[in-house]
Amino acid sequence: MSRYRQRMSFRHPERDAIRVDAVLSALGNPVRLAAVRSLDKDGDRNCGNLLAEIGVSAKSTMTHHWRVLRDAGVIWQHQHGREYQLSVRREDLDARYPGLLDAILAGAARDEAA
């Protein structure tokens, strides 16, 4: 076994394979919703910085959340040096379901303010 870590390649669904039920299910979790809200507001982020911002300390927990978001077609995740970069698949989500992400994020902001 090589002592060097292999580069991880993530699978992302094609735009046409993104399903509304998977998107809604992924964003139905408060931790994942907080992560997507932050990514949408601030743009691409590395996983470590985003973990600190949303207040999650267990990397293994977030690994699961990243997978759910990625598999649902909500985020892009790719390796950037030693870090993993995350970004919202806004263009794909807006093309598939116009206004859905905006409505969810606006609703979350209203709920937080209440």
TrEMBL record:
A GO molecular-function descriptor: DNA-binding transcription factor activity
Native species: Actinorhabdospora filicis
The name this protein goes by in its record: Transcriptional regulator
InterPro entries assigned: ArsR-like_HTH, HTH_ArsR_DNA-bd_dom, WH-like_DNA-bd_sf, WH_DNA-bd_sf
CDD domains according to UniProt: HTH_ARSR
Annotated HTH arsR-type domain residues: 12-108
PROSITE patterns: HTH_ARSR_2 (PS50987)
Domain of life of the organism encoding this protein: Bacteria
